[in-house]
Known about the structure:
Layout: H1 2-22, E1 40-55, E2 58-67, E3 84-96, E4 100-111, E5 117-118, E6 120-127, E7 135-138, E8 153-161, E9 172-175, H2 179-183, E10 197-198, E11 200-206, E12 210-220, E13 234-244
Parallel strand pairs: 3-9, 8-10
Antiparallel strand pairs: 1-2, 1-3, 2-7, 3-12, 4-5, 4-11, 4-13, 6-8, 6-12
Amino acid sequence: MKRSIILASLFLLLLSLLSFANNQNFMDEIEVIANVGPYAAVIPQKLMFETTKGYWLIPLEDEWFEVEPEMSFGHFSGNPDQKSRIQDSNCFLVETNCPVNIIFEGTPLTHLDGSTTLPTTYWAFRSLGVNDIPISFPRIPFLPPISPLQLIPVQEIGYFGDSSDIPRGPDFDIRPEWLDLIVDLVTGMIWPTPEKVESSQVYTGINEKGVYAFQVFGFAGVRENISAVKAGDYVGEIRLTVSADS
């Protein structure tokens, strides 16, 4: 009797297994979820190049590399007749995983004791793209060096600074000399005028994730009266702020 019950139980178990094996639609699932918040990072960047290959005095290859970000207008003699200057293009790289707005602001060159300022204006651009640095480019003899994408301005964002205190122009010195090759890429190069300068500039063209480059040129000069500019060191600041696109 006991043996019959055991055999019957085994038979029923076998039938259940065969039935499960023949039915392939029995399934369930566990959902796996996560959430990634909006985030962005800003990296200031300044690039320089040096010739790494050449034949006699003819350059054949240039290497671009990073140096400490800084916009230096150099030494002004204090002579009120000295021309104002436009300075090199520093970059900001913005990496984001969401749409963002970019805000540009800047402070004038100010004496270390805070007593006087130099007329200072800034000029922002969206760049063509982003190259990994360092990078080398071949140099075609007798032609200017090829620039990384982040040094090729393609979309003007605008001037920012104090519209009531603009460096005298439109004649100016370019520092360093190679910068004129980049400035030539900017069609319709115009010295800032009061109606063009805002206290800040906002760029709203970042609509998806990616890495973007922005350039900032600077204008600075002395004043018409010698006593209006105190001798000494002056410092200013360029700020780029990223805000979520609401």
